[in-house]
């Protein structure tokens, strides 16, 4: 099958949506398909269009449906689609009407789709598979990592705020990898580094380097206000790094409602308390480790591959 995979995500910066598109392209190619990844659909011949982002990919979705009224069309929903655009964007809603199938990245995503369209929805959890041995965990401190570009929806400095006044006995150190996508954060992150000795901003890292940082850390913190189903959560589960996440549907849909490592989004004090509980060496950190270990089958590459294979069989 010849598949066009459309994503408006930039190629210069490796965002979560770009990571998703690239992984899907490799996975679909492994399933004996010919896949091209592009920012829009230019009318090229294909048997299937997969569009990542209902609102931003709407021009490609609309044109494809007008030119191919009966051809299969898959729309994959991002966090901004689910938790912002579907409520007020006519284009996002029309994309769902045009779609043959709708893909969401975690179980709670299906609940946001209008009831009459929900039978089209398929949940496909994102996977990660590390082919090389993981490095040893950091031993000289309790290392917490953040893998998030600096833009407001990620609340990227929340962890830095949370660790400003930790007791001197704490061994928590935070390493933050990500590009400055909102210029307003450039000065803020530099100032934070100068005044907060526990916080270090590393700038953007290549994916392999980011995974090494994740694997070496005792903890991943995700502070986003919204996510469709963050790649980095799946990656943390796969390498066995516990997660502390803002209490948002995009994380609960992966980690589960009973996962112990949540804090209210935007709440520095609650995040600080969770970090100190994890560092304390008591049962809380072991509970997080065990919870993540139980979730590893959810993010296996074989499971994601099977989910896509089943979807393609439906469409054919």
Protein described:
The longest helix has 15 residues, at 16-30. This protein has helices at residues 16-30, 58-67, 79-88, 90-98, 158-162, 184-195, 207-216, 231-239, 249-255, 268-279, 283-295, 301-315, and strands at residues 2-6, 34-38, 48-52, 73-76, 101-104, 121-123, 142-147, 172-177, 199-203, 219-222, 243-246, 262-263. The model has no long low-confidence stretch (mean pLDDT 94). Helix 8 links the parallel strand 10 and strand 11 (243-246). It has twelve helices and twelve strands. It has two domains: 2-125 and 300-315, Rossmann fold, CATH 3.40.50.2000; 142-298, 3-Layer(aba) Sandwich (Rossmann fold). The radius of gyration is 20 Å and the shape is elongated. It has a six-stranded parallel sheet with strand order 2-1-3-4-5-6, sandwiched between helices. With 316 residues, the chain is of the alpha/beta class. 40% of the residues lie in helices and 17% in strands.
Break the fold down into its secondary structure elements and pairings.
Layout lengths: L1 E5 L9 H15 L3 E5 L9 E5 L5 H10 L5 E4 L2 H10 L1 H9 L2 E4 L16 E3 L18 E6 L10 H5 L9 E6 L6 H12 L3 E5 L3 H10 L2 E4 L8 H9 L3 E4 L2 H7 L6 E2 L4 H12 L3 H13 L5 H15 L1
Helix pairs in contact: 2-4
What would you say about this model in short?
The protein has twelve helices and twelve strands.
Number of separate domains:
2
Q: Any idea what the CATH architecture of the largest domain is? A: 3-Layer(aba) Sandwich
Strand order of the largest sheet: 2-1-3-4-5-6
Could you name the CATH class of the largest domain? Alpha Beta
Question: SS-based structural class?
Answer: alpha/beta
Which range best describes the helical content: under 10%, 10-25%, 25-40%, 40-55%, 55-70% or over 70%? 40-55%
Distance between the termini: 9 Å
Number of β-strand runs: 12
Largest sheet: 6 strands, parallel
Taking pLDDT < 50 over at least 5 consecutive residues as the criterion, the unreliable ranges are: none
Put simply, the count of helices is 12
The CATH superfamily of the largest domain is Glycogen Phosphorylase B
Coarse morphology: elongated
List the secondary-structure elements in sequence, H or E: EHEEHEHHEEEHEHEHEHEHEHHH
CATH topology assignment of the largest domain: Rossmann fold
The gyration radius over C-alpha positions equals 20 Å
For the residues shown, what is the average pLDDT? 94
Could you tell me the strand content as a percent range?
Answer: 15-25%
């Amino acid at each position: 099958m010849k598949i066009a995979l459309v994503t408006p995500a930039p190629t210069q910066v490796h965002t979560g949506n770009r990571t998703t598109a690239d992984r899907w392209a490799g996975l679909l190619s492994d399933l004996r398909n010919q896949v091209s990844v592009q920012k829009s659909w230019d009318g090229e011949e294909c048997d299937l269009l997969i569009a990542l982002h209902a609102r931003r990919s709407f021009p490609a979705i609309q044109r494809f449906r007008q030119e191919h009224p009966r051809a299969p069309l898959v729309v994959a929903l991002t966090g901004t689609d689910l938790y912002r655009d579907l409520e007020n964007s006519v284009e996002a809603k029309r994309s769902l009407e045009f779609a043959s199938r709708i893909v969401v990245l975690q179980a709670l995503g299906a609940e946001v789709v209008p009831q009459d369209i929900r039978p089209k929805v398929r949940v496909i959890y994102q996977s990660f598979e590390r082919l090389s041995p993981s490095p040893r965990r950091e031993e000289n401190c309790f290392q917490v990592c953040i893998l998030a570009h600096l833009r407001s929806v990620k609340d990227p400095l929340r962890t830095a705020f949370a660790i400003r006044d930790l007791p001197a006995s704490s061994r928590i150190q935070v390493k933050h990898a990500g590009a400055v996508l909102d210029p307003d954060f450039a000065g803020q992150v530099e100032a934070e580094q100068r005044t907060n000795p526990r916080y270090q901003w590393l700038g953007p890292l290549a994916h392999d380097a980011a995974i090494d940082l994740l694997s070496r850390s005792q903890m991943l913190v995700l502070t986003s206000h919204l996510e469709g189903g963050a790649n980095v959560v799946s990656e943390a589960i796969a390498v066995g790094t516990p997660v502390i996440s803002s209490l948002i549907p995009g994380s609960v849909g992966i980690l589960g409602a009973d996962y112990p490592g949540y804090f209210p989004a935007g709440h520095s004090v609650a995040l600080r308390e969770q970090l100190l509980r994890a560092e304390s060496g008591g049962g809380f950190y072991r509970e997080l480790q065990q919870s993540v270990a139980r979730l590893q089958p959810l993010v296996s590459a074989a499971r994601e591959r099977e989910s896509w294979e089943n979807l393609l069989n439906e469409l054919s």
